[in-house]
Structure formats: structure tokens, C-alpha cells
Design goal:
It is a single chain. This protein is of the alpha+beta class. It contains 5 helices and 2 strands. The chain starts with a strand and ends with a strand. The model has no long low-confidence stretch (mean pLDDT about 85).
């Protein structure tokens, strides 16, 4: 049985909590704006390093952003 991380809350809400628009968020996370769009639409997911940085910038603990789920 493999565990995968799935979004627990809307990633746009995490960004909004950091008071950043998509362009600012992308620059802070060193990704393209299209990557932010894909994360927020659930097309892809940030890696652990990006998740940690999101948590730090937004003030939202990592375990409130992502939770392990069984697949």
C-alpha cells in the first residue's frame, strides 16, 4: 500500500493567505506562472520543497495544506 499526498485545501487560498498574486507566488517559488495555475486547478502538485516554502510564506502548516491519503 503506497501513500500519496493530496491537496487538503485549495492552493489558491494558500497563496491568497500569503497576500501574493500568481506572478509573485511563481517568482517566490521559482516556477512559471503556468505551474501555479496547474497546481491551483489540480492538474499537478508541488514537490515537498515547494510545499515547505508555501507553508513558510503563507503561515499555514504543511499538514493543513497536504495530507497523506491511500491510493
Amino acid at each position: 500500500m503506497q501513500l500519496m499526498e493530496k491537496p487538503k485545501i485549495n492552493l489558491a487560498a494558500v497563496r491568497t493567505n500569503a497576500n501574493m498574486n500568481q506572478r509573485e507566488w511563481a517568482k517566490a517559488l521559482d516556477v512559471e506562472v503556468s505551474t501555479i495555475t496547474n497546481w491551483e486547478k489540480g492538474r499537478s502538485e508541488p514537490n515537498a520543497s515547494q510545499l515547505r516554502k508555501m507553508s513558510e510564506m503563507s503561515g499555514i502548516p504543511m499538514d493543513f495544506i497536504f495530507i497523506p491519503e491511500q491510493s
